[in-house]
Prior knowledge:
The protein is an alpha/beta fold. Helices cover 42% and strands 16% of the residues. The chain has helices at residues 17-31, 66-80, 109-112, 121-137, 149-158, 182-189, 211-224, 238-248, 268-274, 289-296, 309-313, 325-337, 339-352, 358-376, and strands at 2-6, 37-42, 56-60, 85-88, 101-104, 141-146, 166-168, 198-202, 231-234, 257-261, 275-280, 301-304, 318-320. Strands 3-2-1-4-5-6-7 form a seven-stranded parallel beta sheet, with helices on both faces.
Amino acid sequence: MRIGIEAQRIFRSDKHGMDFVVLEVLKRLQAGEDSNEYVVFVAPGDDVCLKSSTRMQIVELHCPTYPLWEQWALPRAVCKYGVQLLHCTSNTAPLHCPVPLILTLHDIIYLTTPKGKRMSVYQQLGWYYRRWNVPRILDNCRHIITVSETERCNIQQRFPKIASRLSVVHNGYSACYRPLPIEKTRAVTTKYLPDEHYLFFLGNSDPRKNTVGVLRAYNEYLNLSSHPLRLVIAGLKKEYVEAILTYLGIEICAPNLVYTGYVPGEDLPALYNGAFAFLYPSLLEGFGIPVLEAMACGVPVITSNCSSLPEVAGQGGLLVNPRDSQKIAATIVQLENDDNLRRNQIEYGLKRVQKFSWQQATEAYKKIYDTETPRLLP
């Protein structure tokens, strides 16, 4: 079986969630021993993180925009390289695909929530494109994969006709996310700040990441804690955060904030390891991989009691109402004041993440490919 896999963004330097999902699965498919051949279609980029091998061919497709890349260049490449089945991995797919299609639909948040006022132009274009594309392609998909039971219910409610073709494959976390010796952690974290302990927030400018809620909670925390820690903010520009502080009228907490910008993948495990606690009170998530990453590094995680996050963190996690800034702040202080709670959360997280792995995800993908194979034969 010659299977095509869309991995358009994996060569870009500033990778995000969906990019890491497909990259981790591709690495394991490449190392596996099944009888399939894989053709991986990517866009050119600075981070050539995967190379062709005997069973996996990497094909770079040049096109000026993502919609043109997906709707024009990708279908032509599928025909050129003799692909028999195409797996599109990032929510969208060609409207006219020349072969049977499998789609990973990570979430449909963009179909069920209004466009955020603070979205970047890039995010707005993606929002409009997904809203246009997804409802039109689902009838053409042989199989649809999503990443959580929560999101499966959301998709099925919105598109009941696809229920029999919809399945869940949970995401995993990479082996680099693990407890590190203090010297290895400090060798990295001192590049960003001198503090030995800090609170850590990983976000972007999408409003559902709840940056406003985190900053409100942090301001509350500064008033509650007797020895407040600084807040390290990754993935956001200082100007963006400071505009929110001004809007909220809490500029007073600005000196306690540390900005890392985009964190390279090799630095992220150490930043998790050095954190006293990881804050991830997102408003909406299809899955929430950073929760697993932080837990795997032995860090207590404060996350939301809604969306898919309880499914990932489990009922033993520190689950809070993401709109309740006072509760988020009080939970941080509780971790500061209760060493047993913090130790229990560390132990719980390390045990919890054992339920998830990229190898499990890869095996589930292979079963779906194999299930569809007999239906493709004459």
